[in-house]
Amino acid sequence: MDDRLSTISKQGQRERQASYQVLLNELFQGPASPSDFRTFLAAVVNDSAGTLLTRAILQSFVDGLEKISDPANKAEIIKESLVAVTGPSFEEQTTALRLKLADYYENNEEWTEAAKVLQAIPLESGHRTFSDVERLDIYIRIVRLLLEDDDTVSAEGFHNRAALLINSTDNKETHLKYKLNHAKILDSRRKFVEAGLRYHEISFVGELAESDRDLALSAALNCAVLSPAGPARSRLLAALYRDERTKVLAHSNILSKMFLDHIIAPSELSGFAATLQPHQMARVAASAPIRGFEDEEEEGKKGPETLLDKAVMEHNLLSASRIYNNISFGGVGLLLGLKPSAAEQMARRMVDRIIMFEPMGVGTEGMVSNVAAKHGEEGEEEELGARETKRWDLQIRKTANSVEEIAFRVEAIMATV
Q1: For the whole model, what pTM was predicted?
Q2: Which residue has the higher pLDDT, 128 or 338?
Q3: Were both Cys, which of 154, 284, 322, 403 would link to 366 (CB 3.0–4.6 Å)?
């Protein structure tokens, strides 16, 4: 190989291109190793004949790669060639090589490696000028590959770049890929309401195959179930419940119960949980107990363990507030499978999010005020079925009594000092 290259380098400029082409054809036809191609390309790039001759040979090399039937061997040759071919003068050829290498990695489901190869293409600062559409297509592809390996942070950065270019094309397929990437990013970021709305929108795209539309609809249902209780989730549930296509989905019963505010038993979730993606079953941090009310002897869990647990428990708490006029936190804990103190903590947080509480007189039924803690003696009876006004008065009376009791205790302590 070295002798042939040395001989060619001594030829005239016209003869060199033909000689390089003959040697390149021999390499493609014979049992040449990736290192042989690297040696050949390095000699061509360093030849003093000029850039035009080098580009022509490099383009012949790129086109000739289609003659190699073994994908793994082809990938090795491309990797060796990218080491040999450097410099801004050959960006068109190196870009073509990177696209071919990315195809190989993608076909072998090496998503991150494929994304890294595409990221190495100088779309912004190179000597070659890429059109907005070309850059948009590559950015969208990078985002899709990164999402396959759940690298949401990196994917979102490239998605933001694509967002600046999306209006440069009217291609429906490109817009659909962009929307799907956006929905997946929102899903991975646990913004389930927004993700569900976008999945539902995608499920109406007629250009998609029916099976793909069903997948998008199922993804929308999953996001609706995982969404935190509140008005936004209610609107998403309503849109899906009124969509006749959801009636044939495997877990339409979960959707129906959530929309109708029915309590969902844990036994009903086993099959549904198996369909969720890993990030949708992520564990949640345990809630800190409320000071003064934690009790080691309380039965039940200290809080939801996964995102699904949290979403369903919040839903069941909201459903309970539609059913009961008054219920203790012990009863709520029994219903949710939580310790009473954990049930109170969940109710407090839902009030903080202004999910179930509205000012008196608005006419909203089933408020969180229906759930009242009882920390009195064991023999104390709960008052059930009181009207809104009477219940409100009772809570004020209990608060006043508690304040008065504290004042008496403070006074007694001060008397002994």
Answers
A1: 0.77
A2: 338
A3: 322
